[in-house]
Here is the input.
Amino acid sequence: MNLLWLQASGCGGCTMSLLCAENPNVFDTLADAGIRVLWHPALSVETGAEVRALLGRLAAGEVALDLLCIEGAIARGPRGTGRFQMLTGTGHSMMHWVQALAPRARHVVAVGSCAAFGGVTTAGDNPSDAVGIQYEGSHIGGLLEPDFRDHAGLPVINVAGCPTHPGWVLETLMLLKAEEMRAQDLDGYARPRFFADHLVHHGCPKNEFYEYKASARDLSEMGCMMEHLGCIGTQAVGDCNIRPWNGSGSCTSGGYPCINCTAPEFENPRHAFTQTPKLAGIPVGLPTDMPKAWFMALASLSKAATPERIARNAVSDRIDVPPTLRKPRP
Here is the structure.
């Protein structure tokens, strides 16, 4: 399969994350899967006239385009012209090239939350009128129409995340290469279910503290960050704590709350990322699928039953109280 990667309005962080793929690395993985990178703006040696010629042949259908990967949101401004972001030397905007190439591609993949939903690029007043490839925030219909489908009948595949996990990108591409991705393999926001059917909460190293509602109050402390520090890993999709970055890293394992970066409109939470909004002392964002009354009852019981070890360690930056030693029974 031929792959073309375009970088639109964004920070390039998803490419940086992709380069963190290890054992094997991204280049070996793609080569072994039979995926040929026609061009990537940061990783390919071709430039100038070579790239312009390639884009022309792709748009004309002279070169097969199997996988079109787009990183970053699409700037539609000013006034719908897309000229806030021109593809240098081509005389056309990035918006033009995406609109021209998407119908030619066998599959279209939005890499990262900016490309999927608009993401951080659209935060605040969105002066560039940026938008996702097929979504505008949580609303279907972005740069491409809601009913856009690729040659295999799939919508734009949203490998969301800020940045997205390298494993999510590579696994998606390999599934497409093997023709093993169907519409039922995508969730309601067209995210691949192999990671979107998990919650960030699954495998979180702070789960013991969560069980007893033993909460941290400062970022340096070990306790659960849901009650006071804005963590919404119990609502956010992603297997971040099951297959962490670089084999060991994730936001919550690093002591920072999950901000639900795989979701549309995460960039505008209407409060500080490290603040938990509450109503009458109760967190507004409750765990997915959990009724408020049950959560309140469980939280009250859990707090009452919290062992001293967990309560003390929750507000410490290291383990103050180790687990009790128990002798084996004869």
User: Anything to note?
Assistant: The chain is about 25% helix and 10% strand.
